[in-house]
Amino acid sequence: MTESKRDALAAAIVLLAIAAALGWQAYLTPAGPFDPIGSGAVPLVVAIVMGGLALAMTVVELRRPDDGRERARPSSGAWARPAAFCAATLAFAGAFVTALAPLPVLLGGYLIGAGLALQPLPVSRGRLAAIGVSALGIALAITWVFTHVLYVDFD
Amino acid sequence: MELLLGALTLDALIFILVGTVSGVIVGAIPGFTGGMLIALSIPLTFAMSPANALALLVAMYMGSITGGLVSAILLRMPGTPANVISTFDGYPMAQAGQVGRALGLAASASLIGGLFSWAVLVLMAEPLSRLAVRFTPWDYFSITLVALALITTVSGGSQLRGLLAAFAGVLLSVPGDDPSTGMPRLTFGWAPLENGFPLLPVFLGLFALSQVLLDLAGKEPAGEGTGGAIRGAWLGPRDYRRHGGGALRASGIGTVIGLLPGVGANIASIVAYALAKRVSMQPDRFGKGSEEGIVASEAANNASVGGALIPLVSLGIPGSVIDAILIGALILHGVTPGPMLFQNNPDVVYAILASCLVSAGLVYVVVLVLARPMTFIVRIPRAILLPAVTGFCLLGAYASSNRFSDVWVMLGFGVLGFLMQRGGVPLAPFAIGFVLAPIAEANLRTGLMISQGSFAPLWTNWLPLAMCLCALAVLVSPFKGALRPPRRLVRR
User: Fold this and answer.
1) Contacts of B452 in chain A (CB under 8 A)
2) What is the DSSP letter of A147?
3) Residue A150 in contact with partner chain B when CB distance is under 8 A
4) How far is CA B328 from CA B36, B55, B318, B400, B418, in A?
5) How far is CA A137 from its chain centroid?
């Protein structure tokens, strides 16, 4: 299966799942006493149509003949760096939500970690220093903007 | 006129300048769009008045549409999709040693396009809003139906995917408080969802984080830069006489296309370019360094900005994806978009008009002055830029309401936006559906309460009937060919 077909099917299936979940909730929503159609009618209709469209897209994609020009599978290792970046982002989000450390420390650590994840190995000392310095500078600048310009309380 | 001049306070002018410069710079960076910049900047506007906030954001809009022409001409990398056409003729001109002239033509065309559509915006917006105040809920509901139908057909790609995206946006706008009863619905018992998916985290995820993920999943763009000083960028009266007609024609096309909800600047530049080639005395030059080609594409894409602002300001209906984000910004600042905007918040309206006018002129100067330095900014390593943008998204999502749950919403919509774009499902119908759906549903249910549950006003009143027929025609038109009987070939 080609990459574009797999991506299209993934998108269709995710949207079908969303339609199913929200459609079910809409079906269970009781109608109000004064409203002619009730709270759940519009989302139920939308969910049914959306589910039908997602199914149609799935069928169309499955029946589409593969384009001979496209690779059947992506090259191995192509996803290593994006996966490392996403892992670093999730770790930062988790640490931020649980307030594991002061924000400048968390943000600086994330920028360094995520930046290194995007660098091809091996990383030279000079490049490492450049990433470290710029990451700390950006972390301090962003923190200052949010705390001193927008007065956001991160505690 | 006094109200317009009154909107040009020192604060507003500073914000317009900052917005224009930042928009031009970010617009020049491939992979970074105006929508992304505006979504990222909304948290920064919380401390501002609504008028100054909108002045800043509209200036960013105008700047980002124009900024992409710098990297398109100098590096053959369009900064935004709207500048793809400019690479066809701009880069060949730059390679032939006419960098300055290419930039000058593009910047001048952008200026003419911006001013033309501003004039149309000023002439049309207020009369249209006075007309719209008299609309019934059924009229409004039917107009939003047409808007949704239009987006799905012209968003690029298949109509099936456009419809799917629009319905997904509509459905995901539903969780939260019922607009009629105020009771929570479709919340799965999750307390943070009782107010619905909040606008800012949704937009940050859809437009900023998903773009970062797409960038990661693709190859890093390698620009083939052209060197040398930039000379001959400032055009003379002869150039304006030669290209003025073409710029005005393209501006008209851009303004009209910008008016159509969901149709973006890239469609406007494609249509204007195609027409310019058709009427040109030298069509063979197109794609090889035609001055008329650059003028047509840049005038049209800047004119589409003013055109798209007309339905936003007069009806509260977004004319483009970025307008959907601007509507989000209005709501976040406690301003209700719609035909009453002129009456209830004239300061915001005139701030938008003033920003549109001033930034149309400023982009001309900014592009020519900053063109060469911007080529270095465009080359900032992804390893520094992408984590910084992601970190900003995370903090910005939290800052909107000081809720950690918004961070997860932002991440979720970022992943959803990434999957959708990878799967060829466009984001524009999704975003516009997300913003329009609450308006459409509220008007539908109000109309049903007035008509006591009857849908008859949809076909007994002329405006809803006309709008519904338009929506149907728009949805059916791509399938016309399949419905026609096949023609028999006649052999002679």
Assistant:
1) 36
2) I
3) yes
4) 13, 15, 10, 12, 21
5) 26
Calculate what percentage of chain B has a pLDDT beyond 90: 17
> What residues contact B435, with CB distance under 8 A and at least 6 apart?
B169, B173, B318, B324, B327, B328
8-state DSSP, B230 = -
Is residue B166 a contact partner of residue B433, using CB atoms and an 8 Å limit?
yes
**Using alpha carbons only, how large is chain B's radius of gyration in Å?**
22
The pLDDT-based confidence of B222 (bands split at 50, 70, 90) is very low
> Exposed, middle or buried, B187 (CB in 10 Å: 0-12/13-18/19+)?
middle
Helix (H, G, I), strand (E, B) or coil at B333: coil
- The yes-or-no verdict on residue B223 having pLDDT over 50 is no
Say how many CB pairs under 8 Å bridge A and B.
Answer: 180
Mean pLDDT (chain B, rounded): 83
Residues of B in contact with A146 (CB under 8 A): 43, 395, 399
- The encoded tokens of residue A71 equal 């690779």
Contact (Cβ atoms closer than 8 angstroms) between residue B250 and residue B301: no
Out of A8-12, B208-212, B360-364, pick the least confident: B208-212
Summarize pLDDT for B64-90 with one digit per residue, the tens: 888 888 878 877 767 676 777 787 888
| A contact residues 73-132, partner B, Cβ 8 Å cutoff | 79, 81-82, 85-86, 88-90, 92-93, 96-97, 103, 107, 110-111, 114-116, 118-119, 131
**For B177, which DSSP code?**
E
**Taking the alpha carbons of B155, B63, B122, B301 in that order, is the dihedral positive or negative?**
negative
B250 vs B349: CA distance, rounded Å = 26
B183 and A110: CB-CB below 8 Å? no
Whether pTM exceeds 0.95: no
pLDDT tens for each residue of B426-453: 887 888 888 888 888 888 888 888 888 8
What's the pLDDT band for B220 if we cut at 50, 70, 90?
A: very low
**What tokens appear for B458 in the block?**
């949809």
Bridge partners for B177 per DSSP: B184
Stretches in chain A below the pLDDT threshold 70: 32-36, 67-78, 121-122, 155
Chain A segment 20-79 residues within 8 A of B by beta carbon are 22, 25-26, 29, 32, 34-37, 39-40, 42-43, 46-47, 49-50, 53-54, 56-57, 60, 79
Strand partners, B185: B176
The interface predicted TM-score (ipTM) is 0.89
pLDDT at B470: 84
Q: Which two tokens stand for residue B330?
A: 């209005």
